[in-house]
Specification:
By secondary structure, the chain is α/β, with parallel strands linked by helices. It is built from 15 helices and 17 strands. α1 crosses α4. The longest helix has 15 residues.
Amino acid sequence: MNYNKKTVRDIDVKGKKVLLRCDFNVPMAKDGSGAITDDKRIRAALPTIQYLLEQGAAVIACSHMGKPAATYESYVKKQTEKGKDPASLTREKWEQSRKELSLAPVAARLSQLLGKEVMMAADVVGPDARAKAAALQPGQILLLENTRFEPGETKNDPALAQALASLAQVYVSDAFGAVHRAHASTAGVAAFLPAVSGFLIEKELDIIGGALANPKRPLVAILGGSKVSSKIGVINNLLEIADTIIIGGGMMFTFSAAQGGKTGASLLEAGWVDYAREMMDKAASKGVKLLLPVDAVCGDKFDASAKTMVVKTGQVPDGWMGMDIGPETVKLYCDAVKNAGTVIWNGPMGVFEFPAFAKGTQAVAEALSKTDAVTIIGGGDSAAAVQQLGYAEQMTHISTGGGACLEFMEGKELPGIACLLDK
């Protein structure tokens, strides 16, 4: 797939209306106050927004937020599946559930960050959005309501894509966290407007694409998280390009079982044991170092207050579950990144939300903060861990898209990138 895409610098936007797809899917306070608990994604969009406004464009920003039920019928179906009584599911409740996923708080926060008014449309392509978009002047910015309020968004409905496109003359995609989805606002609109990337996507493609296509060697990939099944494509692709692959997290027990080890009550994907064995053979035949844990920290229950003990991998007692990499493994993994040229990390080493099982993830984050390598954190939980632990500033790049970054590392075509104009 070609990642050499045109950016906002390659087109003239002066006096034009620009439809800008952002990723404003930010975490909100659970108390219904509409308070944004982390505005990182809003800040990430600022360079592109400021550039477009300075160049004399009128910006029509759009984004999704959460997973609202687009229709009352789908709301009833979803809630009934969760065991709610259909009789209690009123239209008012559906409307309330949508109100909680409105982008109005984002418009308010964006206004503060830009130091200028961000107008808010009451709908996505309805009468209010159309009227406000038509009246928008160069240097002004309008935010459309949550794109997922439209049933056609997740179906990539051409009629919705065309309606969105009709508001503007140019399409700019800057929502890296959503480019792995072929939705109306992430891919469909590009069929009706000239489409280029913003600065955030440009940076993701440059840094992650560069690390995969032409890495500073040795290239070390650290893969954690709970399931082998969700990382198959990534491991397969990285076996073609990495010098060392490090395995941690819950999926280490599937590899342990593949070596004939005892895994106790640890997370185990029995259906993927043969696959893990195949990957080990493939690594050996390709001369790729596949580092697996030599010890694990176990708990007697899945709980922050669990009793703990350290055991050799493959010797987890019955009833105990492995919840982190052990101290010997920590040493082994930290040594492996010391002299790396590039390190890509996706997925925590253990159940890092429980302090007793966070040491592996902490140690890896600290080791990456001290290495001279290019360090790329692949979004999701590893990004959250690095932020929480205070090492974010020492990393070369923290990806804004967990799922998109994983599919990128798999070598998959990303629909929201494929649709942009090539340089």
